[in-house]
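To the wet lab folks,

You asked to see what we're planning to order before we commit. Fair enough. Below is the target structure as tokens, and below that is the sequence we designed to fit it. If anything looks off to you, flag it before the synthesis order goes out.
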């Protein structure tokens, strides 16, 4: 049977194809491949989605991409935003080579994919990053045994000590709390990492579109009703995904995110999730890699495939623009940075 190839940027059309039903039938499919998330990414980052479906009877291969015009350059390109590392979801691996052929025929000068395809299907080069995840298909005692010696009990001790100092733990529930959480996130990434954060509109969509359907949770730690730390956990049918963690500087020494992460992992396990994704880490960040390993995280290399055109892995350590950008970000007042993020971030997304 000859495969049928369909292509669209219209999410309503993709819905008629049964896109979500097919994608959710594959256990490893990322939550970012669902139409709800694709719509959020489209709206927040001003990207144009490109959905490609290859069918052969009941078998399928679904490709999720985004196109845009690069600043100061004319050609369009297709790429993936932030931690979107499985753009090709398939029910049968025989369709994957055809997927690469279809991508190569697209009318763009460059087509770049971040992915985690099996080695026999990968055409990529290893990036400077790995993706870490915890296998939750075990009993709770076995899960705790996977944590390094002392990690689980240390987080329990920290929870008790912080509670003695008046710290409480709860989920984020109101829009007012969301505003406080977001400003704290902007300040945290600015001061600690010299990084700009995602636009507030992303978190508003998480709050209005995802949290009511239990597709996201924001765990918080509070002192005198003020949010002082938090984690954003994104949720799919059978997996949880650590997205962002923040803390204020005054209470950073309490390691409250360690407490919140333990709670999120145990919650995911007790609710039947089979994996907990700890996110992506640069290989150069050995401390963070070790921290994730201590939670039982297994690392998988992130691969980058330039299907069409030319691409080289960026060397951020030698990039003068990156070195100058950090000190500049730290000098901008957080409330002002918060206001300009919606205009700046969309131009920085992608490869």
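Sequence we intend to order:
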């Amino acid at each position: 049977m000859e495969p049928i190839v369909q292509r669209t940027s219209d999410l309503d059309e993709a819905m008629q194809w049964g896109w979500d039903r097919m994608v959710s039938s594959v256990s490893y499919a990322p939550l970012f491949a669902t139409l709800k998330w694709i719509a959020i990414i489209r709206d927040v980052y001003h990207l144009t989605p490109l959905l490609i479906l290859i069918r052969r009877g009941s078998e399928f291969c679904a490709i999720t991409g985004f196109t845009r015009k690069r600043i100061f350059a004319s050609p369009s390109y297709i790429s993936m935003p932030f931690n979107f590392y499985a753009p090709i979801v398939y029910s049968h691996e025989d369709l994957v080579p055809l997927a690469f052929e279809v991508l190569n025929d697209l009318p763009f000068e460059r087509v770049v994919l971040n992915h985690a395809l099996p080695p026999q299907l990968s055409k990529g080069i290893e990036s400077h990053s790995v993706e870490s995840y915890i296998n939750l298909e075990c009993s709770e005692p076995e899960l705790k045994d996977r944590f390094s010696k002392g990690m689980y009990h240390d987080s329990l001790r920290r929870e008790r000590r912080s509670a003695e100092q008046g710290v409480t733990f709860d989920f984020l529930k109101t829009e007012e709390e969301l505003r406080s959480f977001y400003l704290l996130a902007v300040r945290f990434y600015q001061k600690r990492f010299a990084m700009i954060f995602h636009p507030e509109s992303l978190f508003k969509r998480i709050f209005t579109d995802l949290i009511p359907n239990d597709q996201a949770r924001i765990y918080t730690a509070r002192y005198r009703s003020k949010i002082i730390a938090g984690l954003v956990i994104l949720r799919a049918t059978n997996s949880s995904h650590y997205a962002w963690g923040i803390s204020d500087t005054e209470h950073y020494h309490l390691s409250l995110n360690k407490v919140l992460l333990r709670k999120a992992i145990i919650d995911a396990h007790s609710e039947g999730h089979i994996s907990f994704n700890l996110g992506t880490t640069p290989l150069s960040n050995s401390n963070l890699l070790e921290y994730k390993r201590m939670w039982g995280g297994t690392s998988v290399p992130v691969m980058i495939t330039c299907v069409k055109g030319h691409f080289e892995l960026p060397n951020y350590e030698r990039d003068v623009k990156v070195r100058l950008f950090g000190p500049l970000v730290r000098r901008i007042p957080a409330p002002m940075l918060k206001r300009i993020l919606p205009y700046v971030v969309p131009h920085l997304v992608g490869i």
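Structural context that might help your review: The chain has two domains: 4-118+304-347, 132-302. The mean pLDDT is 83.

Thanks,
Computational group
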